[in-house]
Amino acid sequence: MNNLTAREKGFMYVITLLIIVVLGYFFGIRTLNNKYDEYRAELQSLQDRKAYLDQLRENNASMASEIEILKSSCSEIELSFIDRLETECLEQYVLKTFETAGCPYLTTISSGEIGMTAVTYPDGTTSPDNVVCMQIAVTYTSTDGYTIPQYNRTPDFTVAAPTPAVNTITDLSDQMGQGEYAKRKGYDEFISALKKINAENSSCIKVSSLTAAQTNGYMTLTATINFYGTSLRNRISVDDSKAPYTYWCGDTNVDTKGGFIGFPYVCDNEKSLWYGIVNIELDPIAPKPFAAYWANTLFVEQYNNAGSDIRTLIGFGSEAAEATPSVTPTPAAA
Question: Under 8 Å CB-to-CB from 307, ≥6 apart: which residues?
């Protein structure tokens, strides 16, 4: 190396420097270029991934919005039906509506489920969800425009009545077929109650039938009312309505210590709400569910005394004055 001339040494230095530059390029700059390309490719991949995820997030947000819209639509459909059909709630609602409308003379009430068509899927299987229908049937009577009516304890013939029962009967018997008792009430009130029920919830309460028949001078009025609900496996909505037919809103503080069922002809149990009331079977010849028992008995006796001539009894003949019975029926509290 020492024998080399200065020129040769300079040439060797240049060669060495070139070698170092070449090695630096191959092991440094070129490697960095390769890493740079890899990083650029990875960045592009991440950017594409981000764009996909952003699109997916937007799609998820849109789908979530659509799901909420569908849930709202499902809830609206669900709430268009009655959530729970409980017979006792439906019956007390119907009875209360008729009573409020001025039609209190109930003869019978019954309930039963109406079979509904099952929902069948395209594959032939049957849906576990279905519409249910409960039907309430009621029969009421009008008054006859002559006999004194009685609803519950009006007029009151119990031992606690403000006026002695005998006096009450005497006063009322003189009013048979006169004043307010000369008007036959019940039909208009019955129709009014049905209209109110039918308008209560037009999507799920329907009056399905109505009949009216003339019976012994009064009218027998019968109606059937359908209440529609659903039985759903996976219900979405929560029905928090307080409609009177969806929950019990009748009496809850009734004292039943004295009992209600099977009381005798004369109830002498002071704890009973029926204390002093007579459980009497009316004459089957002329049953009047709306009338006080004594008034019906009085009517039958007057009818018999009038020679079975109803025209004479109600004042269309000279014998009307003689139709008044000589014996006044004895009330429960006498």
Answer: 319
